[in-house]
Amino acid sequence: MLWDSDFHSSLPSLIVATEEAGSVTIRPNANFCRHQSLVKRSDLLGLLALLCGMKLIMAGSSFEVSGTLRSLEAISGKWKVRIIVHLLAGTKRFNELNRLLPGISRGTLTFELRQLQKDGVIDRTQYSTIPPTVEYKLTASGEELRPILAALDKWSKLLLALKEKNSP
């Protein structure tokens, strides 16, 4: 377990943080080896940087950990990316999305759509008709996910090819 009391109390003794030019570099110290079986180095450093709100610098590249994790949180889960992919094709009504996503309950779809709307990924438009009509479409921010999802699709194909190549 990552957050047992022994591990949590020893976090400060596992790292050395140095600040230079507005960035904080985190690296493991000698005590780190004792806990390596609990968590990978990059996971621990990312977690520490997130907890401290620091910029993480690893292998010559830097990125804002908290911003990256916030972005991933906005689209994480079983259904959000699937919803976004369908909305990349254009505006959809609630029942259309429900049909396009076999296995999702109406309540779960409603919850996920509200979360995506709250995070600024989609827009919801309600029309005063009988019965009420609701449409969902991607915001400009949501549209920016198009190249990211395309890159992930390309990467997944590379992973699949690698897996096939390395399987017996």
General description of the model:
- By secondary structure, this protein is of the alpha+beta class.
- Helix content is 52%, strand content 20%.
- The chain has two domains: 5-65, no CATH class; 77-145, Arc Repressor Mutant, subunit A (Orthogonal Bundle), CATH 1.10.10.
- The strands form three sheets. A three-stranded antiparallel β-sheet has the order 5-7-6.
- The chain starts with a helix and ends with a helix.
- The model is unreliable at 1-12, 33-42 and 53-60 (pLDDT under 50).
What's the assembly state of these chains?
Answer: single chain
Number of strands: 7
Counting structural domains, the number is: 2
Strand order across the largest sheet: 5-7-6
Q: What would CATH call the homologous superfamily of the largest domain?
A: Winged helix-like DNA-binding domain superfamily/Winged helix DNA-binding domain
**What structural class is derived from the secondary structure elements?**
alpha+beta
Largest sheet data: 3 strands, antiparallel
Q: Ranges with pLDDT <50 over ≥5 residues?
A: 1-12, 33-42, 53-60
CATH architect. name of the largest domain: Orthogonal Bundle
Instruction: Tell me the strand percentage band.
Output: 15-25%
Residues in helices, as a percent range: 40-55%
Described by the principal axes of the CA atoms, the overall outline is globular
Secondary-structure element sequence? HEEHEEHHEHHEEHH
CATH class of the largest domain: Mainly Alpha
Please work out how many helical segments DSSP would assign: 8
CATH topology of the largest domain: Arc Repressor Mutant, subunit A
- Output the radius of gyration: 21 Å
- Average pLDDT across residues? 75
